[in-house]
Amino acid sequence: MRPTPDRVRETLFNWLGQDLTGRRCLDLFAGSGALGFEAASRGADEVVMVENNRAAFRALQENSGKLAFANIVLRCEDGLGFARRQEGKCYDVIFLDPPFQSDYLPKVLPLLACRLTGNGLVYVETGDMFKPDAAWRVVKSGRAGKVFYQLLQQVQEKAEGM
Fold first, then answer.
1. Which segments of 79-135 are extended strands (E)?
2. What are phi and psi of 94, to 5 degrees?
3. Where do the domains of the chain lie?
4. I need a surface site. Which of 8, 12, 46, 160 has the fewest CB within 10 A?
5. By three-state DSSP, how is residue 148 classified?
């Protein structure tokens, strides 16, 4: 497990704004929960945290209990499977910080298109530079040591004749 470095997390929440009131967030590969707990502490209406590692999930449960946030929902399951099954819910911010050696990003990003609100954002954290496909545009990006991070938004199709 590799928590998001403090400097990167600070930059991310500067990009998103200090107050997340009214936003729904999904932390798809929650790990330590640093991003999800941070979003919850900044007033997000709901933060769904998904983690399949049982030891990490137990730590999430313990920390969630200690922090007593009413806006956190925990799920112990595979993030990719959750993204495939999740119906009807849309999120304003989705955090994607899968294991660096995994091939999850190209598989999960297409699944998220229908999970985002109109101006929704996807945060991606990787160990190597990641270039999303043409369906996504990079809003912001940075690098801290061996961590590359980006804020993505779906490319909106222009209406015919405009």
1. 91-96, 116-126
2. -120, 125
3. 22-103+113-130
4. 160
5. strand
Q: How far apart are CA 108 and CA 131, in angstroms?
A: 14
The pLDDT score that the predictor gives to residue 4 is 66
Dihedral (C-alpha) 107, 81, 54, 36: value to the nearest 10 degrees? 70
Q: Average pLDDT for consecutive 10-residue bins of the chain (162 residues)?
A: 71 90 95 94 96 96 94 94 84 89 85 90 91 93 91 75 44
pLDDT at 49: 97
Residue (of 155, 39, 29) closest to 93 by Cα position: 39
Q: Residue type at 6? A: D
Order of strands across the sheet that contains 136-144 = 72-75, 46-50, 24-27, 91-96, 116-126, 147-154, 136-144
CATH superfamily membership of 22-103+113-130: Vaccinia Virus protein VP39 (3.40.50.150)
